Amino acid sequence: MSQLVSAVVVGADRLGNIPDVLKGHNIAIMQHISGRDPAHQKKKSLQLPSGTELLILLTDFLGHNVMKTFRSAAQRAGVRVLICRRSVCSMKQALEQCGYCEVACPRARAQANGPNSQRCKRAA
């Protein structure tokens, strides 16, 4: 089993089925931040938790200032950012478009290694 990618999810009070989708793509949520804290809007030097490899921003539950703060923190830390709405379909589409599925998803790597390999869920 390959190592899980550590992600921080920002936005929304509840994630619904999104953790299951991410787990299927070999991504583990290490922290979920709702983004409602007023300090997130004003803080310019916010730091992401150590070990963060991916930042996921759920745009339909975030203000512009909060999103800007977290994007800047990700840029300073050299962390990849995935931006989408809070829905399973939007999450799958964002993973496919950014190419992260090919990097993180073990089924996608297996598919690239041979014709009889197991297919990635996103391709089905």
Explain what you see:
It is a single chain. The protein is of the alpha/beta class. Helices cover 40% and strands 19% of the residues. The protein has six helices and four strands, in the order E-H-E-H-E-H-E-H-H-H. The protein has helices at 18-24, 39-42, 64-77, 88-98, 100-104, 106-113, and strands at 5-10, 27-33, 54-58, 80-84. Strands 2-1-3-4 form a four-stranded parallel sheet, sandwiched between helices. The radius of gyration is 15 Å and the shape is globular. The protein starts with a strand and ends in an 11-residue tail after the last helix. Residues 111-124 have low confidence and may be disordered.
Question: What are the key terms here?
Answer:
single chain, four-stranded parallel β-sheet, globular, 40% helix, 124 residues, alpha/beta
